[in-house]
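Researcher: I'd like a candidate sequence for this fold, 445 residues long. If you have to choose between options at a position, lean toward the conservative one.
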């Protein structure tokens, strides 16, 4: 492949394929009104409302199976918290200016799965269970869904298998929720998957199949094996619309949290969001939902490891799922296991083509610096993948491309001083203590 044909004369893309930390601004980004009609044809506001309604119907079941969700009455949601200590420390350490308020969206602490995957993954399993139960006449939409937790229903679901390919967190989310319903579960895990994630899954009775190969290979083999079995359902991270819909519901919940904190988002108070991307589903769904609600008042950036910027390359080159970081001379290897996807979702890279503001790439060792800094300043520990979001506020005004984006979109000093910047923490609360200690020491020199 002729790399230069794709990077053109774009200096930011040249830095991306050299594996350097950089900001990339999306040249295909459009005002919201120009994207509205086409996007609604793919995922409409009604689809998102339907997904939110389904999670509401399942709340009595969730509450019954997972007592940790009792305080929130079976709604799986995470805290939004201001991290001014981290903001100050980042400014001092990196010599950068971080305007406005800086908040952490703690999907790292979502109940049940301890990662953003508790949104999309659990949603898709619940929807599949609902489809099966409705079709078999064992459930009516107006029923109290806690009846799904009965022994009879568990035996019913026990005839079926749910399978998924995962680098770890999606497997945890699908595995734990499927097992709660009574499904048989098989998780196909790539070489990047951390040992503790495999151990945790096995302890929940989940069958873990390990591959020496990368994520795409684990997904392809899982998909193939599942397709051979008529009683099996495959959760397809690279293609699933249901998974995506589960993530979009985050936006309405975040809006309510911002309102409760009396933080405005409007023409004078921009919202800037930074979300780590693997295959693109989670950040894509969250960002898509946010764009539908806040339109031009929200600016969504994804963040990816310097050696694995697959979503960035998929969108920038318009090769979509055909983009593979190795074809661009990168290794695809990163400590950020949740982001180690060499090729992106074709669905998400297409849908986000005109909605994504840009991306920041981040070096592995920086993930650990930020992990330590967050722990020291705020007492919050998250996993390395989840720290990629900090590249956003650090780079926004420091990188030439993103600083120009701010100028081009009316984000001047005055307006930015009223901005809210949200770093999306995507995982971490299930990390076992010894692994946490190891993370705090990694790349310490
Ligand atoms: C899965 C994951 C992501 C990214 O989600 P994708 O849907 O793969 O883009 C980010 N952070 C963590 C911790 C994850 O587990």
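Model: Candidate sequence:
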């Amino acid at each position: 492949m002729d790399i230069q044909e794709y990077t053109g004369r774009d200096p930011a893309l040249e830095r991306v394929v050299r594996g350097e930390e950089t900001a990339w601004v999306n040249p295909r980004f459009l005002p919201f009104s120009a994207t509205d009609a086409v996007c609604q044809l793919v995922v409409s506001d009604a689809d998102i409302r339907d997904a939110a309604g389904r999670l509401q119907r399942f709340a009595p079941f969730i509450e019954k199976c997972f007592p940790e969700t009792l305080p929130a009455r079976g709604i799986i949601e995470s805290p939004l918290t201001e991290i001014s200590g981290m903001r100050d420390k980042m400014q001092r350490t990196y010599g950068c200016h971080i305007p406005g308020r800086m908040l952490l969206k703690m999907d790292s602490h979502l109940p049940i799965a301890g990662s953003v995957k508790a949104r999309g993954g659990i949603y898709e399993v619940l929807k599949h269970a609902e489809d099966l139960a409705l079709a078999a006449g064992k459930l009516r939409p107006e029923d109290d869904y806690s009846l799904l937790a009965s022994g009879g229903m568990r035996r019913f679901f026990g005839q079926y298998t749910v399978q998924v390919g995962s680098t770890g967190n999606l497997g945890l989310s699908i595995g734990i929720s499927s097992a709660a319903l009574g499904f048989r579960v098989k998780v196909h895990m790539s070489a990047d998957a951390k040992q503790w994630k495999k151990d945790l899954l096995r302890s929940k009775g989940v069958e873990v199949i390990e591959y020496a190969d990368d994520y795409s290979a684990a997904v392809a083999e899982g998909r193939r094996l599942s397709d051979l079995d008529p009683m099996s359902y495959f959760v397809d991270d690279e293609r699933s619309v249901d998974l995506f819909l589960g993530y979009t519901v985050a936006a309405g919940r975040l809006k309510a949290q911002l309102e409760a904190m009396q933080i405005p988002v409007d023409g004078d108070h921009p919202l800037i969001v930074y979300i780590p991307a693997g295959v693109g589903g989670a950040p894509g769904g969250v960002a898509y939902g946010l764009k539908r609600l806040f339109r031009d008042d929200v600016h969504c950036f994804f963040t990816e490891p310097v050696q694995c910027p697959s979503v960035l390359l998929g969108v920038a080159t318009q090769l979509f799922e055909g983009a593979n970081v190795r074809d661009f001379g990168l290794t695809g290897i990163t400590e950020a296991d949740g982001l180690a996807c060499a090729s992106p979702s074709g669905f998400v890279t297409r849908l986000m083509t005109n909605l994504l503001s840009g991306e920041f790439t981040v070096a592995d060792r920086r993930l650990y610096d930020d992990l330590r800094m967050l722990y020291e300043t705020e007492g919050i520990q998250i996993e390395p993948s989840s720290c990629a979001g900090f590249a956003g506020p650090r780079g926004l005004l420091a990188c030439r491309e993103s600083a120009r984006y701010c100028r081009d979109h009316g984000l001047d000093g005055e307006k930015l001083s009223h901005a809210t910047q949200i770093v999306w923490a995507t995982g971490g609360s299930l990390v076992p203590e010894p692994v946490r200690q190891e993370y705090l020491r990694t790349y310490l020199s």
